[in-house]
Amino acid sequence: FFFGVMSATSAPERTLLVVIVDVNSHNWGQVPHKVTFDNMLQHLMFCLNAHLQLNAANTLALIASDHNRSEIVFPCDSFMPNNDHVLYFDDVKDAVLQQLHAFVESSSLAGSTRKMGRSTLSSALSHALCYINRIVAASPDTACRVVAITVSPDTSSQYISIMNNIFSACKLQVAIDGCVLGACHSSFLQQAAELTGGAYSKPTS
Amino acid sequence: MAGPNDVFSYLVTLDDRDKDALYGEPFTCMSVFRSLPPLAQQIVLRVLIPNCLVSTVFGEQVLQDFAQPKDGQQPIQKLEDMEALQPLARLRVCVSPTRQLHDLSLNPPFRNSLIQGLAGDGCMDTNVQQKKQKALAPDDPVKLNDYAWNTWEDVLKLIVKNRIDTENQGLTELLEAANLIRVDKRQTQEGKIKMSHQITQDGFQFLLKDVYTQIWVVLRQFLHDKVDAQSHKAPEYEHMKLKILQFLFRLGYSKVGTCYSRQELDPYVNQWLPELANTFGIVYVPRVKKKDSEEWGPSKNKYYVTPLGLHLTSRSPNRPLFRNPDKDHDAGSGYIIVETNYRVYAYTENPLERALLNLFVDVQYHLPNLAVGMITRESVLNALRAGIGADQLLGYLHQRAHPEMQKNDPVLPETVVDQVRLWDKERSRIQVDQATLYKNFSNEEEYKMYKAAAERSGGLLYHLDKKQIVVVSRDCEARINELRQQLRR
Question: Which GO biological process entries does UniProt record here (chain A) (predicted)?
């Protein structure tokens, strides 16, 4: 199925797309209707490629978030963009998949079930916004968007941090899109999308 | 220059069958997608996966709103009328069986190939070479860059030079066919035929354009002359042109410096590859020693893509527009400084660039790394007379402006820009006609007769009743002289 969220990026100038991927393996196992992680990755790659094709100067960043940590997975140290600053999709795809794989492998399996079910959406959002801030300071003409793909339910203790994130996103003029693949709606993402001018979708098939 | 200046405008001129055949390759579709305006890109993306009509996704009312020209006019029904969809229709990305707006959908071959390309299935297989035992080291990007620019500059030098270069007979014919040079054949006293060529007006304009337009114009002629000519001979060559075009689009997605295998290419493309390399510099075929002999010949197995080839089909703002002589800066930074007192300083050693500058700047001093000159009325008028437009001239300077200059706003000094435009307008302000002035008539009757005669013959340029002066153009002087003879008698 095609992410309706993807088509929300329409800026003609160079755009930075930051994708937050929830790799919480516990919650992925509980996703209904036959959506698998690999499946999602395939579609995600498609969207990323389309994004890169829209404008030759478009750039990407990927953040993986687990139950206890979140990291900027791409761009990483081992990925060397060449002199022309052209992102070749093959390189990007390989690097992204490799890094995600490493991230998932290294996630610790210790901890109680309750803790495992958490999501670290707020820390991932903060990561994303800090990265965007850095990039915008370097090249001010970049438009930015954040797309969050989650499967985990909302953790109510993160409410305040997420609201802070939303307000800073408004200030930076960054739209936050949300795509929820889990069982229940995420009101945090709904609020984020509405306040920052992004899109929210929860596919049903 | 006549004809499309851009690969994508050229695509518009192909007929539908050819376009559909072209869209069988994923890279072609990706390149075309990349070149579309943003709105068109969005439309394509949204209709891509669901494979439905455009009006289903957008709603017919929305489409009408997009296309609403003025208030109170009839709603747009026909495909051609809607401006936002024009590129899609012309490139045959979207088709409409009934030529109506509500029936618009994506062209199936385009759609399939685009999906394939976006999913990453059409990626070039570079692993084939790496698996082999031999160390096929990727070529040095700097060397490839130099090769590409040198090759293309040779072409430009040929246009600018006056002597004929007998080795490059094929290239000369190509340039002549593209109307960039004019070849004169003269017979010398010994009976030998001596040829020289001169640049044409189109050629002047051509020189000042950016390199990718230049390459494309000559490439287009090449495709027309050489490839189409062969294709008429044998029917299986029919698709040669399309294959080469597909290959060009593929280049836009390759990496500079990686070695690609020639064996995987289409045989038709393979046949023309050395020529593409030697004439245009968009690919590079290394020279290797042939088996069992000491001769060097072009490699049959590998080729590299050069920066010029990479950016030929892309419209990326990062692409280098001209060769940079200064190794410190990134490719494409400028080297010309224009001052408000009309002095021009060009930090370049490249003889071709100096020659181009000579076209419209009065170059006064040549230093090892610098050319100093002034923009004078004569130099600019010379250029204008040769056919270069004022805007082209200014565009050329603007493109190559030094980074320090580019910090100004506007980049070029206004005085210089305005003055060049004024000199250009001057040429059309005054019109010079050869004429004769008649005055000191004996009486008013005579004056009136002369004036009437001139008016009748259509050569009356100016008359003044008060002073009894008639100015007649040279062409009509004969008639006036007749009148004079009549009156004398």
Answer: nucleotide-excision repair; regulation of DNA-templated transcription
